[in-house]
Amino acid sequence: MSGQTIVSFIFRFHLANTETLTEEKQWRIKVTHIQDDDEMTFENLDDAVNFVRQSLTK
After folding, report:
1. Which of 39, 31, 33, 37 shows the shortest CA–CA distance to 56?
2. DSSP letter at 43?
3. CA nearest 54: which of 28, 29, 21, 31?
4. Residues forming beta bridges with residue 38, ordered by sequence position
5. First-to-last C-alpha distance (Å) of the chain
6. Strand partners, 11
7. In 1-58, which residue ranges form alpha helices assigned H by DSSP?
8. Which residues make Cβ contacts (< 8 Å) with residue 54, sequence separation at least 6?
9. Which of 9, 30, 33, 54 could form a disulfide with 38 if both were Cys (CB 3.0 to 4.6 A apart)?
10. Better-scored residue on pLDDT, 30 or 5
């Protein structure tokens, strides 16, 4: 397939803490953009997805 562009990301989820009273889980999300070897860590999925969106518009 000529002219096809493929961009890859890895999402890693790490349980950082669980709130004792509410039992709410606090996650750390590490996102790696494979082609640029760019890596960022986030506390919520919305911010992680925004990182992907911004990487795709570069």
Report:
1. 33
2. S
3. 31
4. 33
5. 22
6. 31
7. 45-56
8. none
9. 33
10. 30
